[in-house]
Structure formats: C-alpha cells, structure tokens
C-alpha cells in the first residue's frame, strides 16, 4: 500500500473554460487526507512524510511523469483514529469515529449534525455538494437547484422514461458539472472504504442519486429561470424534500464563509466572474481554504514534480478540445475550436 500509485486517465472537461476547475484538483485535498489516514503524515517525526504518485489527466499534463503528492494533515475531533480501530474494531461508538474520519477527509466536520439529519441516499449527495460548493466559487444557486432536483426526480423515473428524455441542446458546462459530481462519487467510494464503511456504499452508487441526461434537463431548465416547483415537476413531496436538502447545503456552506448566489446576482456583483473565460477560482490548493487563502486552480502545474500546495505552475491551454458524453448507448460529441 505504501508504494501504490493512483490514476485517473480520463475526464470530461473543457480546457478553455476558465471558470470550472479540473476534477483532478478539486478532489486532490480529499485524496491527500486519505493518504494521511492510510500512510501517516510524518508529523510524529519517526518516519519521513510519504509521497504518493498520482497519474491524473488535466489540461497541460501529458502524463509523462506522475505528480508526487504528500498527505495533508487531518482535523478530526478527538484526533485521527488508527486503521486497526477503523477497520477491525466492532465496539459500540466506533461507527461514529468512522464517520468523523470520513467527514474529516472532506474537511466537513462542522457539518456533521446537518448531514446526520439527512435521509439516505441523499446524505452522501449533500456531503459532496457542500464540499463542491465550498471549493469551487463559480458554482451558483442554479447549479445547486439542478443537482438536487435531478436527484429527487430520479427516484420516480423508470428506465424507459430516462431513455425517452429529450434535450433542447447540450451545454458543455452541464456535461462538465455532471462529470465533476460523478468523480466525487468515486472519490467518496475511496474515502468510505478507507474509513471502514461508515456509510452504505449503495447510497452513493450513481444510479441511485444521479442521471446525466436528467441532470442536463434540470440544468437547462434552471438556466432558463424555471421555478423550483417546475424543477421538481409540481410534486409537493419532492418540493418539501428539495427545500430541506437545499437548506442543509446552504447552511453548511455559510459555516465555511461561502454564500451561494444566483448566476444573475453573481454577474451583477462580480462582472466576468461567471463567464466562460472569467476568473473563476478554486478555493483549495493546500487544504487551508477557510480563510480565503485558495489559489487559482488553473495555475496548478503539470506532472513530473513533487506536488507542493504553495507552489503553482502556469500552463497554456490547448487550442481545442473534445468532450464526449455517453447516454443510453448514444455518443454525443461536442467539439470546440479556439479562434
């Protein structure tokens, strides 16, 4: 385990969209805390701080060499539990410690109470949404509405209904957002297993909380200004759950000094920030994001060097890109070329 490598050689990302970060960077602090849990972070002085080789694709990284990533210190109430207790201990109360470790990996220990009150399978989804909206400043209220609405509506959809969904057009930002969430679900699988399975794995299998085409439909509707009632398809039960889940995410984000605003409000308050070529920022590079010390995600460098949270390298985006999305045995290709 100490000499293992981790890789992710595919992604759906728009290299020319400066407003959304690469999934490789968004979830890197989570992986770094998992490394600390599994390998230690070298704070005891008895052994050198380990490094993990990461082969993650992102714009500007030709994958000729891995990024050498160091573990990130965890902040868990009561201290970081050892693996023997997380994996083997069956005593009462250990499950709570496992949950503490999981939330510590996402740096969301302060949201424990709110997340505990959420019913399955939405607990894991809310955890991911809180993390994403704290990390990525360019996510807006319409994005949150689309994520929650599709998860709620998915519960009442048959396979035939999902297959028959028709979209007016394909928005590349919606494709990337969907991909970003699914990568979060796979990251959650990693975290949950490392922490001794505090949550049921089935609760964050994609088919239980996410459908790409349904999300795309809700995203387009939210962008057009459709009401929340329309997003949940005029279903009162879903509407009640929608407001409850939205409240959990928004309150948790406020604790982390992140206020989620609508896209129109964001444009009026911060011109250019929400645009395709805007100056979107990724809050976390080193994991210390609570006081606004994050750096611009697009300044992170390519591989072949040790990953230093405080050292960034600028890269030149490619001149064109291609995004592919597979829905119901149909491959949609979207190709964009720079001017």
Automatic annotation (TrEMBL):
Keyword annotations: Receptor
GO biological process terms held by the UniProt record: fat cell differentiation; peroxisome proliferator activated receptor signaling pathway
Transmembrane segments: none
Top-rank taxon: Eukaryota
Residue span of region Disordered: 261-311
Leader sequence segment: none
InterPro entries according to UniProt: Coact_PPARg
GO cellular component: nucleus
Biased composition (Polar residues): 279-288
PANTHER family per record: CONSTITUTIVE COACTIVATOR OF PEROXISOME PROLIFERATOR-ACTIVATED RECEPTOR GAMMA (PTHR15976:SF17)
Protein name per the record: Constitutive coactivator of peroxisome proliferator-activated receptor gamma isoform X13
Organism: Mustela putorius furo (European domestic ferret)
Lineage: Eukaryota, Metazoa, Chordata, Craniata, Vertebrata
């Amino acid at each position: 385990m100490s000499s293992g490598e981790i890789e992710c050689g595919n992604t759906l990302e728009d290299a020319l969209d400066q407003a959304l970060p690469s999934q490789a960077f968004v979830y890197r602090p989570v992986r770094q805390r998992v490394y600390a849990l599994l390998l230690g972070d070298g704070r005891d002085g008895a052994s050198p701080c380990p490094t993990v080789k990461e082969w993650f694709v992102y714009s500007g990284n030709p994958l000729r060499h891995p990024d050498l990533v160091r573990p990130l210190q965890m902040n868990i109430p009561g201290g970081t539990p050892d693996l023997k207790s997380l994996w083997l201990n069956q005593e009462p109360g250990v499950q709570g410690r496992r949950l503490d470790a999981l939330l510590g990996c996402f740096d969301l220990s302060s949201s424990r109470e709110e997340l505990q009150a959420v019913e399955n399978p939405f607990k894991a989804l809310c955890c991911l949404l809180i993390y994403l909206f704290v990390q990525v400043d360019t996510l807006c209220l319409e994005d949150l509405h689309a994520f929650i609405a599709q998860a709620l509506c998915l519960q009442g959809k048959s396979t035939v209904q999902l297959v028959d969904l028709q979209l007016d057009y394909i928005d590349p930002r919606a494709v990337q957002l969907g991909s970003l969430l699914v990568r979060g679900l796979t990251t959650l699988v990693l975290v949950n297993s490392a922490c001794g399975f505090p949550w049921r794995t089935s609760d964050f299998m994609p088919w239980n909380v996410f459908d790409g085409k349904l999300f795309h439909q809700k995203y387009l509707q939210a962008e057009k200004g459709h009401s929340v009632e329309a997003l949940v398809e005029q279903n009162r039960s879903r509407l009640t759950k929608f407001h409850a889940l939205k409240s959990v995410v928004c309150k948790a984000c406020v604790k982390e000094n992140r206020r989620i605003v609508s896209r129109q409000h964001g444009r009026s308050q911060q011109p250019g920030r929400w645009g395709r070529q805007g100056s979107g920022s990724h809050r976390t590079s080193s994991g210390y994001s609570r006081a606004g010390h994050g750096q611009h995600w697009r300044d992170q460098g390519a591989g072949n060097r040790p990953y230093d949270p405080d050292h960034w390298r600028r890269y030149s985006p490619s001149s064109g890109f291609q995004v592919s999305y597979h829905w119901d045995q149909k491959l949609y290709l979207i190709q964009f070329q720079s001017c």
